[in-house]
Design a protein that fits this description.
By secondary structure, this protein is mainly beta. It is built from no helices and 21 strands. The protein has 2 domains: about 90 residues, Immunoglobulin-like; about 100 residues, Immunoglobulins (Immunoglobulin-like, Sandwich), CATH 2.60.40. Bound molecules: calcium ion.
Length: about 220
C-alpha cells in the first residue's frame, strides 16, 4: 500500500516513504470437488478428489490432506481413491502468514458396482398377504405371504452391469432372479419368527452389493 498526500500548494508528502500494512488474521478456506461415475457420494470404482484453497489476504501457502487417517500430504494435484469401501478425506490450507484453517473432511464410498440396490418390498411396516397395511419406523412384520422386491438403480443414465439379484431368507431360502423386476415370492413355506432377509445384487464380474433387514414372519 502506498500513501501520499498532496496539499493545495502542490507539495507532495510521504511519497518517498511507502508503508505496507498487512492485516490478515483470517485462515484460508478449502473447497473440494469429487469426480467419478456416481452420485450421492457413492462412486463406481474410483473417485478423483480436487481441493481448492482460497484466502482473502496473504494468499494460500499450501493445502494438505490425508486419506482415512493416513499420512498428511501436500496437495499438488488431484488424486484418486479407488479402494472399495467408505473413505474420509481430511484437508486444510495455511495462508502465507501462517493462519491455519480448521481441518475439514468429506466422506464418500467407492462401490465395486455401478448401481445402487434398493429393497422396495418389504420396507418397515406390517404386511398382510403381500399388502402393506401399516407403515412403521423400523420394524417389518410379514403375515401370510409376500413377494420380496428389489430395484437396481444405475449411478448414471444408461445400463447397469447387473447380472442377477439373490434373495436369502434366514439360511435356507435362496432364489436368483436374472430378469427385472427382481423379486421372489415366498410360497408354501412355513416361516414363523424373526429372520434376516439379505438381498444381494451381483454384476457380470461377480462384484456385489447387499442389504440385510430383519423381518418378523408369520407365514403358515
Ligand atoms: Ca488469510
Amino acid at each position: 500500500m502506498w500513501a501520499f498526500a498532496v496539499d493545495n500548494a502542490g507539495n507532495i508528502y510521504g511519497f518517498d516513504e511507502p508503508w505496507v500494512v498487512q492485516i490478515d488474521t483470517a485462515p484460508p478456506t478449502t473447497g473440494y470437488r469429487l469426480e467419478g461415475e456416481g452420485s450421492k457420494n457413492v462412486y463406481y470404482r474410483s473417485v478423483t478428489v480436487y481441493l481448492m484453497g482460497s484466502d482473502t489476504g496473504s494468499g494460500v501457502k499450501l493445502t494438505r490432506y490425508q486419506v482415512d487417517g493416513g499420512l498428511w500430504m501436500d496437495y499438488t494435484e488431484p488424486f484418486s481413491v479407488d479402494e472399495v469401501g467408505t473413505h474420509t478425506v481430511s484437508f486444510y490450507s495455511v495462508d502465507n502468514l501462517g493462519n491455519q484453517e480448521d481441518t475439514r473432511s468429506v466422506t464418500f464410498t467407492v462401490s465395486p458396482v455401478n448401481f445402487d440396490l434398493e429393497v422396495t418390498k418389504p420396507t418397515p411396516g406390517v404386511y398382510v398377504n403381500d399388502v402393506k397395511m401399516i407403515t412403521l419406523g423400523k420394524t417389518i412384520v410379514v403375515i401370510g405371504s409376500i413377494t420380496l422386491q428389489a430395484e437396481v438403480v444405475p449411478f448414471t443414465a444408461g445400463d447397469t452391469n447387473v447380472a442377477y439379484v439373490e434373495f436369502v431368507v434366514g439360511e435356507n431360502l435362496r432364489f436368483n432372479d436374472t430378469v427385472e423386476p427382481f423379486e421372489y415370492e415366498i410360497t408354501d413355506v412355513r416361516l414363523v419368527g424373526p429372520s434376516e432377509v439379505t438381498v444381494t445384487a451381483y454384476d457380470s464380474e461377480g462384484n456385489s452389493v447387499s442389504q440385510t433387514q430383519k423381518v418378523f414372519f408369520l407365514i403358515f
